[in-house]
């Protein structure tokens, strides 16, 4: 398991907080629930990240994936709610089951179910794949 060391200072004594994968995925999910998707992306995604939607071709690199994320968010007309239904943590892998209530531009309001699988390297997500029903 990789860890992230965050320096902090208290009463002039330097201490370090170590985040394990459980803390990281919980923080990542909380940031997403708060609408801080791009902040979460910058904090937790590796510069060489590969992201993939279902069976579509993967997108490679942080810059390309940032742009893909921005474009995906711009397609949403209204973000009604989201809920983390479950998380799982393994050896350098995390998974989150999501339920999202969204309205996409030009489409009716709908509930979307998705599982995201993240593989971690050097304390950041190096690969993420999204699984959801395709209509």
List keywords for this structure.
two-stranded antiparallel ribbon; 25% helix; disordered N terminus; 135 residues; Nuclear Transport Factor 2, Chain: A; six-stranded mixed sheet; 8 strands
Number of domains: 1
What order do the strands of the largest sheet run in, or round the barrel if closed? 4-3-8-7-6-5
| Radius of gyration over all CA atoms, rounded | 16 Å
Q: Assess the beta-strand content as a share of residues.
A: over 45%
Query: Which class best fits the helix and strand makeup?
Result: alpha+beta
Following the backbone from N to C, one meets helices and strands in this order, namely: EEHHEEHEEEE
Helix content: 25-40%
- Which CATH first-tier class would you pick? Alpha Beta
- In the CATH hierarchy, the architecture is Roll
Mean pLDDT equals: 89
Account of the 3D structure:
The chain has a single domain (17-131), classed as Roll (Nuclear Transport Factor 2, Chain: A), CATH 3.10.450. It is globular. The longest helix is centred in the first third of the chain and has 13 residues, at 21-33. With 135 residues, it is α+β, with helices and mostly antiparallel strands. A hairpin with a 2-residue loop joins strand 1 and strand 2 (13-19). The protein has 3 helices and 8 strands, in the order E-E-H-H-E-E-H-E-E-E-E. The relative contact order is 0.18. The model is unreliable at 1-16 (pLDDT under 50). The strands form 2 sheets. It has a 6-stranded mixed β-sheet with strand order 4-3-8-7-6-5. It has helices at 21-33, 37-44, 62-74; strands spanning 4-10, 13-19, 45-53, 59-60, 76-89, 93-104, 109-121, 124-131. Helix 1 (21-33) runs antiparallel to helix 2.
